[in-house]
Amino acid sequence: MSPILTFRIALKALTANKLRTLLTMLGIIIGVGAVIAMLSIGSGARYMVEQRIQSLGTNAVFIWPGHRRGRNRGADGNEARLTVEDWQALEKLPEVAAAAPIVPTGGEIVYGNANWSCTIYGTTPVYIYQKDWPVASGRLFNDREIQSADNVAVIGEQVRKELFGSADPVGETIRIKNRPYKVIGLMTEMGVSGYGNKDNTVFVPYTTLMKKLQRTEYLRFLSLSAHSREEVKRLEKVAVDFLNQRHNIEDPDNGGFGAFNQAEATEAADKSTAIFTMLLGGIASISLVVGGIGIMNIMLVSVTERTREIGIRMAVGARGRDILAQFLVEAMVLSLLGGAAGILLGSGLARIIASFAGWPPIVSAGSVALAFGTSAGIGIFFGFYPAYAASKLDPIEALRHE
Amino acid sequence: MSLVELKNIRRVYRSAGGVEVQAVKGIDLVIEAGEFVAIMGPSGSGKSTTMNTLGCLDRPTSGSYLLDGQEVARMNRDEWARIRNQKLGFVFQGFNLLARTTALENVELPLLYQGVKSTKERKERALEALASVGLAERSHHVPSQMSGGEQQRVAIARALVTRPVLILADEPTGNLDTKTSDEVMELFESLHQQGQTIVLVTHEPDVALKCRRVILFRDGLIIGDGDPGEVLGTIAKGVIS
């Protein structure tokens, strides 16, 4: 018998008992829907993590002094200190694409009657370029302002909100540690990330911070960037070795220079979100298997219930393989229709979850294909035994069946 | 060449306890094309087994069955399905129509398994068969909307649609009242007039009298074969004596 006719017979049998067909499909609908939604949550989470890490600059290497490892924990006063000269020397290395000094401090910002605590970074515009962080209005400080340690500040969105409301802060004067600073720029909103609230930040020239706010001769960190993501690891090693040598450090693990790079953090985060996605998908697949068992159960019931029909079909000339095909196609139509409905349900769920979580609803073609393929596979796998049992019935016995 | 030639057919059933039961104990039977035959006999006499053998539904333990010149007793299941589809037509006591399926679709069923691809051709042939049993105008009714007599006529149309060489009817009037039973027998009679070979199993002498030949079974053997009046006469005598 032709496949189209087999398909039509299967469809007829399924529409003959609509409620049961729907309930059977529900198992697959929920299973496929869950898989699609879970994979979408995984993709969304991965997207968020990648966004976050990219905002730190994927080519960046962070350098700090006083690195200790293992039994060397605890400062003993002989660790290296990072100087402006170290930074300028490093900048000349061919492996370094750009380098920025970072000196952080906490402080209270006052504007009129309002005051607000935030993190103050002394740095150069290079650091902000490395983060690929745009200015919303105004500008960053220039070389001249850095050279003469001017009282200029670029503020983050949250600081603006707390002190100025919705007004434009550029050109206003704020006070930090009782000295007036001119606001020359406002950063765009970055949102809360895994590494702190970036919007609650004020940037001033590193010279200003070192001379006027903290009175220190040392830098706290260096932010280096490599020429490409592939060179990040090499840069990390070159920079650390260079600094350790420069400071005559004998034991790098005891007060030497440490480094941290975003590329590795990205990889680690990708790996953990991949595991997270697999875990979610795995849990959801269990419901898919349960749905498949539901199909098998109903198909077995259906074969028993329709034994007489099978006998009639055999009497008028259906071969075993015709009966097998009929029931197999029935199971597959069940699971494929269920799968299609499940994909719709899953996509809807993904959309809803995404709108709550604030990530784009990612339903990849891959996960849809996977879900569809799996439901077809379930139809064949769980439909085969009942169909085979039906095809092996004895027509005489089947016709006698009440 | 005869249409049906059974030679020394034996059928032994082995029960679960290992006891062997001989349902048919070596029968020979020849049926010519165009015959209208009734098979009678008490239950357990082997008539149902013989019908199943004729219908390529049950494999005899030994013996040969030539149908339309072909040895079919040793064919496999698929070949049997093809023989049933192309050469045989079945009519059952319980009608055995597919529920929730229209008369037309029920009659089309054998054509589907025959692989008649054209929907138009299937429909035309099914309608033609329904018309020949006088049910053309009821083609879109489902079995539950029809009387027993109508359902049986749909079943006969289904048996006829493939133009089989042999129609096998297993107690076709068993579930019908006298009037509809007569109607069904008139239908068989008219098919017989058109040259259709028909073999039916019945318990009712009235039905058997309407056939041209009666074969009487008892204890797995044929004990009477011939003119309905004569054979039924021997039954009557047996009952009296």
What's the CATH C level of chain B?
Answer: Alpha Beta
The beta-strand count of chain B equals: 10
Helix content of chain B: 25-40%
The fraction of residues in strands of chain B falls at 25-35%
The sequence of SSEs of chain A as H and E is HHEHEEHEHEHEEEEEHEHEHHHHH
Characterization of the model:
The complex is a heterodimer of chains A (402) and B (241). Chain A has 13 helices and 12 strands. By secondary structure, chain A is α+β, with helices and mostly antiparallel strands. In chain A, the strands form 2 sheets. Chain A has a 6-stranded mixed β-barrel. In chain A, strands 8-9 form a two-stranded antiparallel sheet. The radius of gyration of chain A is 33 Å and the shape is elongated. Chain B has 241 residues and is an alpha/beta fold. Chain B has a single domain (4-96, 164-240), classed as 3-Layer(aba) Sandwich (Rossmann fold), CATH 3.40.50. Helix content of chain B is 38%, strand content 26%. A 6-stranded mixed β-sheet of chain B has the order 6-7-8-3-9-10, sandwiched between helices. Chain B has a 4-stranded antiparallel β-sheet with strand order 2-1-4-5, with helices on one face. Classes of the chains: A alpha+beta (402), B alpha/beta (241). At the A-B interface, helix 1, helix 10, helix 11 and helix 13 of A face helix 2 and helix 3 of B.
Structure summary:
Chain A is built from 13 helices and 12 strands.
Strand-helix topology:
The complex is a heterodimer of chains A (402) and B (241).
Chain A: H1 3-16, H2 18-56, E1 60-68, H3 84-91, E2 98-111, E3 114-123, H4 125-130, E4 135-138, H5 143-147, E5 152-155, H6 157-164, E6 173-176, E7 179-187, E8 192-193, E9 196-197, E10 201-205, H7 206-213, E11 221-225, H8 232-246, E12 254-261, H9 262-305, H10 307-315, H11 320-357, H12 365-391, H13 395-400
Chain B: E1 4-14, E2 20-31, E3 36-40, H1 47-54, E4 62-67, E5 70-71, H2 77-87, E6 88-91, H3 103-114, H4 119-132, H5 148-160, E7 166-170, H6 178-193, E8 197-201, H7 205-209, E9 213-218, E10 221-226, H8 228-240
Helix pairs in contact in B: 3-4, 3-5, 4-5, 5-6
